[in-house]
Design goal:
This protein has helices at about 5-25, 45-50, 55-75, 80-100, 105-130, 140-160. It has about 170 residues and is mainly α. About 35% of the residues are buried.
């Protein structure tokens, strides 16, 4: 994590607020197709924080979104699902972005993270409920996660293309 200045704090605050807003707006709509299936639009801002600043700053964005989302959404039990899944997805994004980008695209990074997020959340649910049958959802969540990952990755790709370069601490874009 590099030094924080006013511009960086303001940009990270904006990314956190937009991530939280996307999370809360998405929670107002019924799940796609079946329980647990969401687009994960808040990940647009997490991946953008990773591309703009790096892993530590993206981690702060994830933490703020999870904690404030649970607070404003009134569902603290959701933290046991969202925290491990979100940080596993962020770790996936970080490793792929750090070591394989630009050999692989931001869309590929996003799809991989969406798949990891879905899998971890499903496994946590199976462990908490002690129901291995819940793992039957994995293939369905993988399909929806891949589609959502493409949408999120493409949104981040387009955003990175239009943002001015002086906003980026991370020079690997």
């Amino acid at each position: 994590m590099k030094r924080f200045n006013a511009k960086k704090i303001a940009t990270l605050s904006l990314l956190c607020a937009l991530s939280l807003l996307a999370f809360l707006l998405e929670s107002l709509f019924p799940p796609l197709f079946f329980a647990g299936a969401k687009l994960g639009l808040s990940n647009i801002f997490t991946l953008l924080a990773l591309v703009m600043f790096g892993g530590a700053e993206a981690g702060l964005t994830v933490l703020a979104k999870c904690l404030l989302g649970a607070l404003f959404g009134g569902n603290f039990s959701a933290l046991m699902y969202s925290l491990p899944a979100s940080f596993a997805a962020l770790l996936t994004e970080y490793l792929l972005f750090r070591f394989l980008f630009p050999k692989i695209s931001l869309v590929s990074v996003s799809v991989a993270a969406a798949l990891v997020h879905s899998a971890v959340q499903n496994v946590v649910f199976a462990l908490v409920t002690q129901t291995k049958e819940a793992l039957v959802y994995l293939p369905y969540l993988a399909v929806i996660g891949a589609i959502a990952g493409v949408a999120v990755g493409f949104a981040v790709y387009l955003t990175v293309k239009i943002l001015p370069k002086n906003l980026f601490d991370n020079q690997r874009r």
